[in-house]
Amino acid sequence: MSETLVQTMTRTQSIRPMQLLVSIVERGKGSDIIEYYKPFQLLYHSQASGRGTAASHLLDMFGFGTAERDIVLTFGARDAVQQLIYHLKDEDRSKLNIQGIAFSLRLSGMSAIMAICLSRIDDMAAERREDIMLEQRNPHSLILVTVNQGYVDAVMETAKAAGAKGGTIIRARGVGEGEIQKLAGITLQSEKEMLMIVAQNEERNAIMEEIDRVHGLRSPAQAMVVSMPIDYTARLN
Q1: What is the pTM of this model?
Q2: What is the DSSP letter of 78?
Q3: Is 172 helix (H, G, I), strand (E, B) or coil?
Q4: Average pLDDT of span 29-42
Q5: How far apart are the first and last CA of the chain?
Q6: 226 pairs with which residues across the strands?
Q7: Alpha helices in 151-190, H assignment, sequence order
Q8: Which distant-in-sequence residues (6+ apart) come within 8 Å of 130 by Cβ?
């Protein structure tokens, strides 16, 4: 698509606020949850595999039957994501036969072409959309920890000691760490694992501080910790 056409589309097409919907479900159910999202005009997804860290009784409490996970990242207009969360919380939760959790995160930026296309998709569904009301304040945050391969279980144990209930691990790889290495005077390993922890807001700082204290950049684990607010959550079961 040419730059001129993109500029024309941008002038004539209002771009809606966007969100990232994160769905963590049992292994093999990622394709099922993607299929369920289609009628809500949520059509662009990335899927990865991971494993959970919670104890067996917590797996049962959160609706997981096994530790193996499918992680689905879905980009879409905020109104479409809110509509979906509403149905997951109040109407379709018992019909899915999918175990897991879904939560949405605010996006502050996105490539222009992608945002325009997703806005157009949302426009097509807007006339059929019912008015919904969701609680605005969510008491949860997402903590993301990037850690050297082989240390993620130790980091999770530290997080649990500080109040975390469990997390999901994804294999990752570090890229572009040269400037951090120069400024910090350390050598960073490229083979990484990423730990995703959904935590109560009042527990977030204690968990992050303890991970950084025990497993920070100058330790063998070289953990990097960030957090972001979650807008809406829905438990799937």
Answers
A1: 0.75
A2: H
A3: strand
A4: 90
A5: 42
A6: 144
A7: 152-161, 178-184
A8: 83
